[in-house]
Amino acid sequence: MSRERDASLEDFQLVGIKELLDGDKRPVCIIDRKKELLQEPIYANASFLRLRASTGNAFNSKTNGFHEQLPNDQYTEFLRWIIGSKTDDDVASYGGHRWTVQTLRERWGVVSGYPTLEGSSGTTEIRPAPVEAQTTVVDKTRELSTLANPLTNILAPNESLQPRSLDVNLGGGQGQSEEHGKPLELFDPNFSNAQARMTAHKKLVLEFDWASTDLGPISSWSLELQRSCDFLLSDPRPAALYWAESRAMMYNEAYSHIAGKKHPHMMGQPFNVFWSELGEEFFKYMDDVYTNGVAVTQEASLYYLNRNGYKEETYFSLSLIPFATGDGRVACYNSAYDVTRQVIADRRITFLLRLSQFIASSKEPKDFWSQLLKALECNTFEIPFALLYSAGCESNETLSECSEQSSNIELWSLEGTVRVPSNSSNVPVRFDSECPVENFIKHFPKHLKSSDPTLLQVSDGTLSTGLLEDLRSNGAEICDFAIFCPIRSTGENVLGFLIVGLDSHRPYDADYQLFTQLMTRQLTNSMATAVLFEEENRKARAAAELATLDRNRLTKQLAATTQEAVAADHRFRRMADLAPVGMFHIDPQGILLYANEEYFVMTQHPRDPKPQAMSWYNVIAEIDHPRMDIEWAKLLGGEPVSFELRLKSQFVPPEPANDDTFLHTWIIAAAYPDKDESGNVVGILGCLTDISRQKWAEGIQARKRLEALELKRQQESFIDMTSHEMRNPLSAIIQSADSISNSLSALIKSPNSMIEISRETLENHIDAAQTIVHCGQHQKRIIDDILILSKINSHLISVTPVEVQPLLVIKNALKMFEGELQSNDMELKLEVEESFSELSINWLKLDPSRLLQVLINLTTNAIKFTIPEAERNITIRVGASQTLPTSSNGVEFLAREPSRKDLSSGSDWGSGEIVYLKVQVQDTGRGLNEHERKLLFQRFSQASPRTHVQYGGSGLGLFISRELTELQGGQIGLLSEAGVGSTFAFYVRARRCSPPQCVIPLVEIDPQAQLNAATSSVSTGPQAEPPRAQRSQAKPDKVTVVRHVLIVEDNLVNQKVLSKQLRTAGCTVYVANHGQEALDFLQASEYWKDSTEGKVLPNFICLMDLEMPVMGGLACVRRIRELQNEGTIIGHIPVIAVTANARSEQIAVAREAGMDSVVTKPFRIPELIPEMDKLLRQP
Description:
alpha+beta; 6 domains; seven-stranded mixed beta sheet; 36 strands; kinase
């Protein structure tokens, strides 16, 4: 037998290492470690080549090595790790494999890979796993997390460790009920469910002595603070609220579990006082949040908390959300999730993996102890200290022989310690009959026989106090507990034991116990492997005992296989219990044999130990029973199925939904039949996935799509109406202009120098010109409406109060309608109510332009709808009130929009008595029915689809009127009856004031000028009175000399028309096509310093466009002002911007550039001349 073995060994020695590695299924390569430069392996087997190709690194290979190539970044990092690895214990991950390096003859590095548990994910990541023992807590957590794998499911708790994402609104709004989505009114005594929903924690908050804190008694709390408290107490997540500078704490019931024994003493107290253990760094972090006002989050951060009487290691993922309070201070909303179990579970799993790597690398059975000590050195958290003893075998005994008599062993030898002072005298080196182990560990035989780790503690004498004193002498934080772990080979055979100290910062709970059990089990399995390996060697040397040893080996292998099968079944059930989907097993009769926790939570199926057949039908919505019948028949027929179902359990969406579809919980059920060898169905296996949120999201998306389509339809309808209203006047303008042009062209053909024209022809020309003006004004009103709507949508609309006489402003504004009223035989009366005189209303502070916009809109509508009627009367009533009006002569005002800002309460409104100015417009038009009344005051809406065709308009007037009245602190309303007429009424808030110091008398005012003032055609800043009033005052000082005007305009048509009109007005006109020509013109004038023969230009003024080629208007006026400051231009050149850019921001930019005034297009010469004279009179 010996000779046969020697012959086999000689044959085996002929096998080369390359041949061995070529047949190895693992990916293996070899490098020359003497070459420190980055290099390709000198050898790689087929598995390695396939792996590299699958990770995107295609290359050409030769027989024994690699062709020259350019590896990608991750592969380069992998090569650097191989060359830089210091010991054979270094480990890295690459291509879905875990790699180790073994050095032969101090030169050749043999690199081999083992598939990870999760397999290759298709991506490559180099993740070295350092073995250094001394690392910081944060670094260690990060290091351990790199080895995370699906074994996390073994140590993870039953529930999901990740916090659920919830929508949080800290805007002072009401909290939402978890059950029905109704407002929670904790502070509202009239709320009927307040007492029914009162919990002990809410009662604690309400009864707490808040008067002793900075927050003051609850009765003094602001609405914002009450709503914030409501939201906090209804939040199911752990959360706290820190109010104002003192950061007084208020927290919900879930947060009290985080507080531990600090609750309820910390309620209402400053945050820094009760959480002082967080340290200055965290407080500085929170100070930055308060200072910068930016919300921040932390993920799995380490904190040592003293909340249960000891320094506890915890990990929290938290968020700090600052928000401003109503009084301008800052508060902070803090939600915190305890992820301690997950972080520690990951760390413990990583340690178990590393422990397996170390002890699996033992080359000889007795190397097991040294490798175990190395592994224990790596974990300073769960292994604060350790003592390792082995059974005291004789020098000629093997481990297996020693294990067989381990029950009678009295000799135990110290193999080594971990983090125990070397000079400790309380750690025996050897136990024997003279120094029995029972003197060191009480009840030692009992502990040795236990299959699970045993808790040792100082209180019962099982743990040596002297040992703990030695450990604490170096300042280490050691608790009074340790565990005793017997290390077995198989069965009752004990080959050693391990004493491991417990982490002083963590409780010895179920998770900690499971970790120690897994560690002990892993040590036992590895020791059994070492013993079996030694046993095989012994059997090779002892041929006489071969048969017996073979039988023993098979018996042990069977036991190990059985144990592994049981463990595999246990792991599968535990994985199923922790799975995020519902898993079930049903027999063919419909009896539920097994279901995991998620199944019961999802379906709300009763947990009956003896469920009835088909009892799970009761959790399915009745509407889906027919569908379930069909699918169940398919399963019994041997066909796998996947389908959607609704359950009776209610789904509560994150936001309230009006669709009954979401009342049920939606699931996807996937099941397949389990068959025996004969093909008969013996059971049904499957899983359930909750898709309620996806269904809810699909419904929300569908509704939003319909809303978008409706908005698009409204916008298209608005564009159609606007285009119609713009094109109709264009047709009249073109036809009127053609009429004038054709008539005058015929007259000018006369050979006489003096042309006679009939009165009728002149009247026709005047009528055509008035038509053009009227149509232009109509188009301008539409454009103004669109601009105002844009400002309203962008929240840019402003209200500018000035001192005015409201009655006089209204009278002058109504004069603009005199021509239209006369041409349509219509009567308009202005009535002043007695309340106006009783309150002695004279001068008020309000915005006349916004007031007139509403009045003109309502009056225009009244005229438009009254023209077709037989009786055509319009009555406008003006009144006042000191109290907030709720109605006006039977007209009920519409409720204000909650989100609408009131711009009438600023400091620029003064401090005078508040007065409400009421205006009512009554007509005898067609009136409106109930359906038509509901459509009014909405954007793009008119009374009926025929309104636009019959009366015109864009559907914006009343919507804008409502917006403007509410912005001025007022309301608008309607009283109408079909066939009788309509009455519109509105009011605005104003304040009494004294007359302005420089009162400009409002004499007879051109109605058209009043309209232009109301729509801001000329913008020279806030005006107490319309521009025409200024012109009235200016008449005594009117410039009598000729005005010299320079027109800077690139549009030749506008240049020609404006020049002609100004010359008609008696002006001397010069033109320039752009800004540079304007500068050249000034250089040749008397205003230029060095000009010797410059043009004399008395009463000189410049009208300048903004958008021009070569040099624009803004650049030109800036250059003019710079030349004035340098002294090159003598005196001040008045410049008026003439532009179509009418937005307030564009006007402000023009003024900042140096413009003296801004006139927006379109404008009329009678409006421009007074503005020019005003600037010419200025010094």
